[in-house]
Amino acid sequence: MKRILIVGAGEVGYYLAERLSAEGHHVVVVDTDPEKIRRLEKLNVLTVRGSGASAKTLEEAGIKNTELFIAVTNSDEINLIACLLAREYGVARKIARVKSEEYLSPDSPLNEEKLGLDLIVNPVRALAEEIVRLSKYSELSDWEEFGEGQVLMVGYQVRPRSALAGVRLSDLVELRDLYQFLIVAVVRRGKTIIPRGDTVLRPQDRVLLVLKKQDLPALEHVLGLRLEPPRKVFLIGGGKVGKLVAERLENEVEELILVEKELSRCEALSEKLSRALVLHLDGLDARELLKEGLDQADLAICVTDSDTINILSALLAKHHGASRVIVRVDHPDFIPLLQPLGIDKALSSRLVTSDQIFRFVKSGRIFSITSFLETQVEVEEIEIPPKKPFTQGIELQELRLPPETIVGAVYRDGEVLIPSGKTIIRSGDLLVLIGLHEGLLKAEKIFTL
């Protein structure tokens, strides 16, 4: 258990406080806003009203006994000053959310290393990187790698004519023996199901699968997936996020069309980008967008600074035939509402930032953690300790894991196993553990205590 001090009780601070306190850490949150402080009352955390840039406030919050310091207010200056104060008080680990790009350059006089910080998280860059990563394949809504890149967790939507539509999971045993994959979660009408043998897959279900990376081409054929990269991409919004995405994508896809309403931004982007076509258009102007081929888009990415415009332009693109849409939504409460409307992937910069910080905070025998935020599914890589019963080896089915969890893969001596109940688990194995948050907390105790 760590003593953690969080400065900032906005969306990011609240999300981190909720998750870290649920794991048993002693969490203190500092903020100047009485409404934000009041919102934290339902969590098992202590609160202090005041500025994170005040030594007096931080002392009141217990800075002298803090092991981990996280500054995530909306002000770069307050976050950095707070972290510098934490350094003076001898706090071992310090994390800051910083919006300005100047702190991210290795040549900056105030970069991560020179400020003595363990991690600087930039929300714009974090969101852009996540969008680019998820743009890799036309039909996949998710893509994560584990086990040193040998294990994949991918997500896609079951189409009406898909080989999986109407199939009971217990009927896939023979196919699993051939290709070694595991369906670990099903999202249906906004609800996440950790499936069992009697679960029947339905059209429009979003399915998360774990498989060996080497088996992906075979499963592409068997399951009817189309895994080539998108050829024609529409990018709606040329702000900071859109600019970063465009710079990364323009050499990765055959045709990139960037749509921006502000003329000055269009002119600046045209000078910066070499291959992308920059259009001075409204992202909601269906007639003009259709003239440019929106109905033939493999992917539409909506990243303006307005949630309303992003959601409407995504629905517009989907309605007119875009194969897949990714939408930026700054208010996380909207995310669960969008998948039933046909939105393939919704991302919040606040939650992407929170998740990046949370992955960094995890330590000990948990090597990495990833959250599929709109599904409530989390994935952990956890090393099995040298203790009984693992030193002798034990069948997976004998561990009696919580029903909200599944072991998706076992990484041992450079080899990957997609396990069954009979798989023997041994000390030193690296498990890819998948489930809902509460289930994973219970499962961690089995492996780490």
Explain what this protein looks like in three dimensions.
The model is unreliable at 363-369 (pLDDT under 50). The chain has 3 domains: 3-121, NAD(P)-binding Rossmann-like Domain (Rossmann fold, 3-Layer(aba) Sandwich); 128-133 and 229-352, Rossmann fold (3-Layer(aba) Sandwich), CATH 3.40.50; 353-448, 2-Layer Sandwich (Alpha-Beta Plaits). The relative contact order is 0.10. α5 (123-134) packs parallel to α8 (240-249) and α5 crosses α13 (349-361). It starts with a strand and ends with a helix. It has helices spanning 11-22, 34-39, 55-60, 76-88, 123-134, 173-179, 216-223, 240-249, 263-272, 286-291, 307-319, 335-338, 349-361, 437-448, and strands spanning 3-7, 26-31, 46-49, 68-71, 93-97, 119-121, 140-146, 151-157, 181-188, 191-193, 206-212, 232-236, 255-260, 277-280, 299-302, 325-328, 345-347, 366-372, 377-383, 394-395, 405-412, 415-417, 424-425, 430-436. It is globular and about 60 Å long. By secondary structure, it is of the alpha/beta class. The protein has a 6-stranded parallel β-sheet with strand order 3-2-1-4-5-6, with helices on both faces. A 6-stranded parallel β-sheet has the order 14-13-12-15-16-17, sandwiched between helices. A 5-stranded antiparallel β-sheet has the order 7-8-11-9-10.
